[in-house]
């Protein structure tokens, strides 16, 4: 369980970590097979992102907890792989003279990467958004809120005894916990409770995703269901062109080089860096071939352009990567800029490197 004093801190450690997993550096698409971690096209991710993004321009505090259950591992053998006949024939029909359109169709049909290792299981996580002003007015310590939620998960919502570091009482602790599951009354401390569940039976996923803090019994039931309904929670992948070997294809070197070129074009084509900037610190994402924005609280419109707020902190976002250039010898490099948009009004800078060299 981690605590974050601001949305910026929360986003860098949680939201952008999911984005980093999904993007896989330059992008990862595995249609018809698996969705890697939290794809931005995944409705679960979009719901999580939109609900947390609403608080990006507020003084809210965030408590984030994560639990993982691993049930099996998968590992692909390294050599003598048998390719599916349809895939094999598709490769044979590819032109040796580079033509992006036909190679793009290959990626659309079979994806850009294939899985070499995978961990199956389930994950449950929640984000608790707390009203900073209400907590401070009551004299509650943020660490005590963490203690309350930890006790609440272990024994259910009602807490009879709790060890705290400051002045929060058992009654105060219960008041916070009861607000988490209350969907009808006006809340004082809890601004939102967002749960994200992967793996398990649909009834447990629905209950965990829409309920308050789970008790030990519900978590046990979900864990039992994960054994029979796991999802891929971690994986290692390799580019599809690594399946093209001289043992299988007569023109392997040419085909492989063409696939590498096409992969670069495909990543640029399907990256949300192509989207126009969202206003008001909104987050762009691609939905098919259409760009959309996830807007923070107080902003609306297709580009989050309608708002009453002023001087909103704007976090920086990366431009698309440049093309690879040879820098000397066999090394290649590319770069990107933190200008899509650049950080403004105290917003955070872009995470990650501005240059890559291979």
UniProtKB/TrEMBL annotation:
Entry keywords, A to Z: Cytolysis, Disulfide bond, Glycoprotein, Membrane, Repeat, Secreted, Transmembrane, Transmembrane beta strand
Coiled coil ranges: none
Membrane topology: Multi-pass membrane protein
GO biological process: complement activation, GZMK pathway; killing of cells of another organism
Keyword Membrane: yes
Biased segments, Polar residues type: 346-358
InterPro entries cross-referenced by the UniProt entry: C8A_B_C6_EGF-like, MAC_perforin, MACPF, MACPF_CS, TSP1_rpt, TSP1_rpt_sf
Cellular component, GO annotation: extracellular region; membrane attack complex; other organism cell membrane; transmembrane transporter complex
PROSITE patterns for this protein: MACPF_1, MACPF_2, TSP1
Main subcellular localisation: secreted
Residue span, MACPF domain: 1-274
Locations listed in the record: Secreted; Target cell membrane
Sequence intervals crossing the membrane: none
SMART domains with a match to the protein in the record: MACPF (SM00457)
Organism domain of life: Eukaryota
Region (Disordered): 326-358
Record keyword RNA-binding present: no
Function as written in the Swiss-Prot or TrEMBL entry: Component of the membrane attack complex (MAC), a multiprotein complex activated by the complement cascade, which inserts into a target cell membrane and forms a pore, leading to target cell membrane rupture and cell lysis. The MAC is initiated by proteolytic cleavage of C5 into complement C5b in response to the classical, alternative, lectin and GZMK complement pathways. The complement pathways consist in a cascade of proteins that leads to phagocytosis and breakdown of pathogens and signaling that strengthens the adaptive immune system.
Subunit comment: Heterotrimer of 3 chains: alpha (C8A), beta (C8B) and gamma (C8G); the alpha and gamma chains are disulfide bonded. Component of the membrane attack complex (MAC), composed of complement C5b, C6, C7, C8A, C8B, C8G and multiple copies of the pore-forming subunit C9.
Family of this protein: Belongs to the complement C6/C7/C8/C9 family.
Protein name: Complement component C8 beta chain
Species whose genome carries this gene: Naja naja
The organism's taxonomic lineage, starting at the top: Eukaryota, Metazoa, Chordata, Craniata, Vertebrata
Protein encoded by which gene: C8B
């Amino acid at each position: 369980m981690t605590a974050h004093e601001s949305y910026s801190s929360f986003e860098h450690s949680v939201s952008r970590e999911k984005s980093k997993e999904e993007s896989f550096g330059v992008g990862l698409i595995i249609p018809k097979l698996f969705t890697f971690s939290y794809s931005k096209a995944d409705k679960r991710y979009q719901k999580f992102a939109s609900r947390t993004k609403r608080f990006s321009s507020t003084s809210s505090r965030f408590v984030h907890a994560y639990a993982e259950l691993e049930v099996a591992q998968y590992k692909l053998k390294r050599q003598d792989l048998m390719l599916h006949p349809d895939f094999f024939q598709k490769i044979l029909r590819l032109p040796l003279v580079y033509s992006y359109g036909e190679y793009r169709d290959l990626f659309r049909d079979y994806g850009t990467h294939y899985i070499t290792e995978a961990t199956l299981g389930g994950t449950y996580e929640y984000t608790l958004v707390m009203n900073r002003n209400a907590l401070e007015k009551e004299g509650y310590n943020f660490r005590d809120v963490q203690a309350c939620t930890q006790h609440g998960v272990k024994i259910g919502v009602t807490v009879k005894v709790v060890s705290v570091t400051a002045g929060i009482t058992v009654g105060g602790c219960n008041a916070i916990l009861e607000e988490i599951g209350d969907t009808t009354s006006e809340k004082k401390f809890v601004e939102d409770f967002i749960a994200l569940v992967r793996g398990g039976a649909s009834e447990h996923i629905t209950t965990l995703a829409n309920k308050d803090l789970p008790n030990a019994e519900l978590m046990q039931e979900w864990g039992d269901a994960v054994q029979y309904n796991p999802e891929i929670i971690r994986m290692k992948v390799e580019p599809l062109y690594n399946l093209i070997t001289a043992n299988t294809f007569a023109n392997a070197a040419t085909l492989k080089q063409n696939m590498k070129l096409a992969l670069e074009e495909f990543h640029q084509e399907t990256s949300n860096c192509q989207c126009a900037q969202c206003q008001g610190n909104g987050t762009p994402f691609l939905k098919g071939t259409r760009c959309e924005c996830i807007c923070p609280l107080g902003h609306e419109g297709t580009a989050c352009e309608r708002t009453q707020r002023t001087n909103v902190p704007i976090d920086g976002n990366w431009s698309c990567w440049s093309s690879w250039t040879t820098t000397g010898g066999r090394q290649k490099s590319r770069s990107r800029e933190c200008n899509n948009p650049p950080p403004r009004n105290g917003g955070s800078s872009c995470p990650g490197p501005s240059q890559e060299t291979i």
